[in-house]
Give the backbone structure.
Amino acid sequence: MDIAMIAAMGEANELGANNELLWHLPDDFAWFVKHTKGKPVVMGRKTMESLGRPLKNRLNIVLSRSVVKAEGFVGAASWDEAFLLAKNWLEEKLELAVAAESGLNAVVGDGVGNDVSGVNTSVAMVNTDENGDWIARKNEIMVIGGGEIYKQAMDFANRLYITQVNACFTDADTHFPAIGNAWKPVFVKPHGKDDKHAYSFEFQVFEK
Ligand SMILES: NC(=O)c1ccc[n+]([C@@H]2O[C@H](COP(=O)([O-])OP(=O)(O)OC[C@H]3O[C@@H](n4cnc5c(N)ncnc54)[C@H](OP(=O)(O)O)[C@@H]3O)[C@@H](O)[C@H]2O)c1
């Protein structure tokens, strides 16, 4: 099972300020929905508060050392607890999907890029569809922030979905950790600035 982080950040790894995002980029939101829909998402308590309500069609797991009472969110006091909740939910969902689509050769267990022996066979830019878009994975736990949570998950995540926003945000108070050399870029797609997007940005995927 893959553990992926998904984040949008500025040129200095800025993530947010005053518990809010720093931009409004509709196509980045669509990318986020595409790659989190139908999956368990793991977030920190502050990100839950920033969202305000649970994300639809996803298991919303919240890491907190206190009891989480917000409707539509499931609390976890540790990463182990969060991953257990996520795995059980995802496995049940994938089993149901396989049963419903009997005969379909569903991608279960390996995602793309890992053979059954666990050897990573990813090659840059081969994991794309006919439109040149990154193929959505089914078998992923998605870590969706914020800064504290990304920092901790850097040690055990094996995929990063980064939206690199081409601007600096000096008022930011939360940052994404440095992406070290162990991470290899496997996908990149630029997006221009236009009347709906105040900044240009780039969708990137890294794996290790
Ligand atoms: N740009 C993006 O893609 C993006 C994505 C998400 C969030 N954000 C931004 O990031 C900011 C929030 O990030 P943040 O770093 O302040 O907070 P956060 O990471 O969302 O949440 C931190 C909280 O998570 C809980 N926690 C952390 N580690 C834990 C552990 N190992 N076990 C149990 N609980 C744990 C603690 O909650 P308790 O205090 O309740 O114990 C802690 O206070 C906001 O500005 C938000 O808008 C940006």
